Amino acid sequence: TAEAQRLKSLPKAEVHLHLEGCFDATVIAQWAKLEGVVLPRPREDLFKFSGLADFLGFLDLACGLASTKERLVELSYGLSQRLADNGTGYADVIFNPTHWHAWQGRLGVMLEAIDAGFKEAEQDGLPTVGLCVSLLRTQSAEAAVELVESLSAMRHPRVVALSVDGNEATAGRTGPRFAEAFRRAGHAGLRRTVHAGESSGPEGVWDAVTLLGADRIDHGVRAIEDASLVEMLANRRIPLGVCPTSNLVLGVYPSIQEHPMERLRQAGVLVSVNTDDPALLGTSLMEEYRLCRQAFGWTDDVTKAMAHTSIEASFANVTVKAHLL
Ligand code: HPA
Ligand code: ZN
């Protein structure tokens, strides 16, 4: 349709997208068969999740199947193809080493394999990707510092940020546990992004900013429950990587009408539109834009401004940003 064409050609970036969320059902079924792994549900129900905990458990299973370098290359190349299909010029991609069981203790080799897929994609004219290497919310302070020290020693040009994801509801309030790791990441020249205000309330967002020095918040939508937090995010221009469908599928909000995206935008918070885990959640970046335009009545000018914010909020280097803007 004409609207789809316009959304595709809109210059935009994606800032909240997990490598772990880009497995197609066919790929999972194929690899599971090869590995002799029995899937937890029939194929047609494979992606029916009961909530974030169930979803995160499934990530472990899916990522566990990616046991060879070729499979990692296929996944990262496929992600770039997905970006191109949506007219996304750049993406910050979150990658959490803890989910990938075949690669434990081999972060360097794993990063090289993922990087190889992205490089091949770039050489074929597909979009550029930066990696945000992620801690899992349940990890220890020591494990967090160890990850940052490995990243500092490698100085891999693909890695642009340190991230935290996982379940804040089951892990409990993390407080300052990752403060030292984030401080060191900043020193090593990495940007900082934190999942908060999804499985946590506003207190998780406060902690991300005040204790971890977050440059950006992944989700952050439950900030709406605290007016002083909304004001702080707007004043300090800390962007939120919002994922509407993810919040609906994983039960953060019962309907798009109740989703706070539009109220946050009108309060002056820098919100952007993202997919989180497009394959597993059955969405695409164009579909997220379409959903927001329909639900919130965004005009073409608002849509353009949102796409502009996504580029500004990204960790793309100045050359890539200038090219997109
Ligand atoms: N929240 C927490 N952890 C995650 C998510 C999410 O939306 N997606 C992948 N890991
Ligand atoms: Zn996420």
TrEMBL record:
Gene3D superfamilies: Metal-dependent hydrolases. Its cofactor is Zn(2+). Residues 11-325 form the Adenosine deaminase domain. It holds the Pfam family A_deaminase. SUPFAM superfamilies: Metallo-dependent hydrolases (SSF51556). Keywords: Hydrolase, Metal-binding, Zinc. NCBIfam families: aden_deam. This is Adenine deaminase. It comes from Rhodoferax lithotrophicus.
